[in-house]
Write a structure and sequence with these properties.
This protein has five helices and 17 strands. It has 346 residues and is an alpha+beta fold. The protein is elongated and about 80 Å long.
Amino acid sequence: MKVTKYRILLAALCGVGVSVGSISTLQAREPSTSTLVSNVVPDVVNAYDLDGATAWVGLKECRALVSNDIDISVRFDTQIDTLPGDSSVSLFNGAVYYSLARGTTTNMECKAEDGCIGVPDADVTRTAEDITVGVGFRELTGLTGAAGCDAEIDEEYFIRIYLRNSQLVDTWQQAEGRIILDTIRPEPPTDISAVATPNSLRLEWTNSPSSDAARYVVVVSDSPLEGGELPDEEGSPRKTYAVTGGQDGKGSASVNLAANQVVHVAMAARDLNGNLSVLSPSVEVTTADTIDFWDYYRSEGGLEEGGCSVVGLHGASGRAGGVLEYGWLVFLSGLALVAGLRRRKS
């Protein structure tokens, strides 16, 4: 995209790296691991994201899982064969599941008072290489209908197995898979501004205050948007586009508009579970034919006589000053030096 290319080029000319902001995550403790388990693989239909032993489920996925009464499962790849042999002593001691509110670090011993629920043997499949535990999503979460997903749930569900590598060992090791269920919409961004061409939108905004707002989308409409509306409403004629960049309150989106078209642009935040915020109030934008590089450079604080502006680093004044007082002179001097060396070699 033109705006993104401009930023990369400006950063290169000024000798400044392009940084990527970190994303804050809110989660409870990590799932328990065992030396007897080499890999843990959750199987959740249409999970928003999968990361090792963890599956992420948002509002949209929650509704589908509950409405269709879908079972989920976790496969534990074992280093040992836990199938019963000639001995009546088992190396597998069952499976349980439980939940924790996100942000807590409680270690569950799964005693009777801990609220852990045992998984029936019929829902556990064992081979010589793995153990797979199945649980209905409704049973795991306690939800009975899709409307329950709208109740702003923020829970982590753990599915645990117990195993040991010898009948002579009294201590059972435990391994867990985790499903993070978050149906809370993040807060929307504010202070939206935009410049448009038929193929791209250049956007600036104040980031969402929600700690797990990871990305942003932009919605383009033919009519004004008051804000507070849902961007993912089914059957909406509005067009939604992903925004690239964004951690510094600046980004761009590829669009398909006409020249000199008047559109209304609003934005929403997307969290780590895929939940979209409500829309910000829209701003009116008229698409230009192109965005000229030098106009963009000057709009970001670039100097005609030399010097560089760091695109995307705004101080309290709203602009960052030149990083190198004679940036262009240094750049051109470097080119001249390279040309001189080439002539000497020839």
